[in-house]
Amino acid sequence: MLRSVFRCFQQNSVAGQRNMSQSSLSGKVAIVTASTEGIGLAAAQSLGKRGAHVVVSSRRQTNVDKAVALLQSQNIQVTGTTCHVGVREDREKLVQMTLEKLGGIDILVSNAAVNPFFGNILESTEDVWDKVLSVNVKAPFLLTKLVAPHMENRGGGNVVFVSSVAGYQPITGLGPYNVSKTALLGLTQALAPELAQSNIRVNCVAPGLIKTRFSSELWKNEALMDQFQKQLSIKRIGEPQEVGEVIAFLCSDQASYITGETITITGGMGCRL
Description:
Strand order of the largest sheet: 3-2-1-4-5-6-7
Structural class: alpha/beta
Distance between the termini: 56 Å
Order of helices and strands: HEHEHEHEHEHEHHHE
Number of domains: 1
């Protein structure tokens, strides 16, 4: 008798946890930049499956349309638009459209990044630095500045920056990109105490080698993969969804006492500045 009661309790508890996780972001509005593939799309899926209405974006309308169709097929509430985060007018349009269509903003996941250079850092040009810092560092800050008042109007919110293991452990040949990802670690810590006054939490994730198109030049290179494998405790490439789930957790009430932190998702690769 006691065994059957305990089993019933366990089943109800598991079901309750499942329902809670699926609806923990119900009614929330989440903007995810660069979210038509890879980590951005995985973040949109994880947030959407927890009940958030996600706003996905990309520079190309065809990519936006494909992502919207995919998410709708998964019963996720979604709105899509084009946006180049390095362009002020596009950032403003993204925020304004979200406000007009959905009435507010609760979550910002800043995922967009570029890497236009590979080689000796001393050979990188001013134009390369301007582009990398504009998209990878300035845009996340300026988007946060745009959405913060609207989050405050809703009683609070969450900002998550997507950095990289390269922010801790520079990858050879990616000098400006490495520096930009380190900057996001500092931006997270600088913004967190300021925005905590408005009940807005600011956190960051630093993925390791994740199987995306963006990182394909790394994981398709056998020599580089051999180097990475030696540093990994979990001897495989990570999947985008494994990053998306951590992002969704950081935006949930389960992470309500976490701010100013960077969570590394690296398969055990050492990360230290």
